[in-house]
């Protein structure tokens, strides 16, 4: 059993954060409804590694110690698929904000 506070212990503590989401995504992309635990674990490790690396890179290029959307966009600018997806998500986020604001104004007045 890993010691509390050790790197291995921290990895185990952060583990299982995306377990449910990874399992659902695997199913959505054609895997079995209950994929092998080992497959989910490997994919989750890759997701955590990717997020950690992107976060560290973003923290080093923008304002120190702070990650901003622009930093992430800058990092993925040369990957057309990721860049297009981020653009779509940011556009959708803005549309949702406008829709919520309009809904709130209609229901609660401004």
From TrEMBL:
Keywords: Nucleus, Transcription, Transcription regulation. InterPro entries: Histone-fold (IPR009072), TFIID_TAF13 (IPR003195). GO terms for molecular function: protein heterodimerization activity. It holds the Pfam family TFIID-18kDa. GO terms for biological process: transcription by RNA polymerase II. GO terms for cellular component: transcription factor TFIID complex. Transmembrane segments: none annotated. It is found in: Nucleus. Belongs to the TAF13 family. Component of the TFIID basal transcription factor complex, composed of TATA-box-binding protein TBP, and a number of TBP-associated factors (TAFs), including TAF1, TAF2, TAF3, TAF4, TAF5, TAF6, TAF7, TAF8, TAF9, TAF10, TAF11, TAF12 and TAF13. Interacts with TBP, and more strongly with TAF10 and TAF11. This is Transcription initiation factor TFIID subunit 13.
